[in-house]
Amino acid sequence: MAYGNLNADVVQSSVTGTPTVFKDGAGTETGTLCRAWVNYKGTSTQSIRASFNVSSVTYNASGYYTVNLTNAMSDANYSCVTSVSNPGGAFGVVQINSDNAFGDVAPTTSAVRIGIVFYNYTYVNSAYVNVAIFR
Q1: Is the dihedral of CA 23, 108, 83, 127 positive or negative?
Q2: Which residues contact 15 (CB under 8 A, 6 or more apart)?
Q3: pLDDT, greater one: 8 or 65
Q4: Which residue from 29, 4, 32, 30 is spatially nearest to 20, judged by alpha carbons?
Q5: Residue 103's pLDDT band (cuts 50, 70, 90)
Q6: pLDDT digits 0-9 by tens, 27-79
Q7: 82, 125: one domain
Q8: Residue 15's domain spans which residues?
Q9: pTM, entire model
């Protein structure tokens, strides 16, 4: 499989839970695919619009959610990328692995916590919340 000037081989593992990887001609891993993603309505009546490897999203409190994975990650050292629609018409921040008291919560292999924080340090709902997990 060629991507521009980059020649890569796609390697699919026979080990359950191990992602497909891309390797260069020398056999060096150059990347993997997204392991889980979700687009959901982040209000008190939240609902998943579309997803992959996400079993559910738990509404914990205003602006505070838990994204639950269908198939667990091999460890909790994954990367989580998020985006949200404009919460409340002003600047906000999305926190990963946060609790609603602005503290850190250790990530787990089966879930990630998301907090949408308004500029005045209150949690707020967002109509569109997007989460992607890479490992």
Answers
A1: positive
A2: none
A3: 65
A4: 32
A5: low
A6: 887 777 889 999 999 886 889 999 999 999 999 888 888 999 999 998 998 98
A7: yes
A8: 2-32
A9: 0.78
97 plus 123 within the same structural domain:
yes
Cα–Cα distance between 66 and 41 in angstroms, integer? 13
Burial track 18-41 (b if 16+ CB lie within 10 A, e otherwise): ebebbeeeeeeeeeeeebbbbebb
Residue 131 has pLDDT above 90, yes or no: yes
Opening angle at CA 48, ends 117 and 91, nearest 5:
20
And the tokens for 29? Answer: 């891993």
Complete DSSP assignment for 5-60: TEEEEEE--SSTTPPPEEEETTS-EEEE---EEEEEEESTT-EEEEEESEEEEEEE
Rounded-to-integer distance, Cα 79 and Cα 104, Å: 15
Q: Residue for token digits 């890479």?
A: 134
C-alpha Rg value of the chain to the nearest Å: 17
The pLDDT of residue 3: 47
Assess whether 25 and 51 both reside in one domain.
no
For the chain, how many structural domains are there in total?
2
Based on the fold, state whether residues 45 and 69 are members of the same structural domain.
Answer: yes
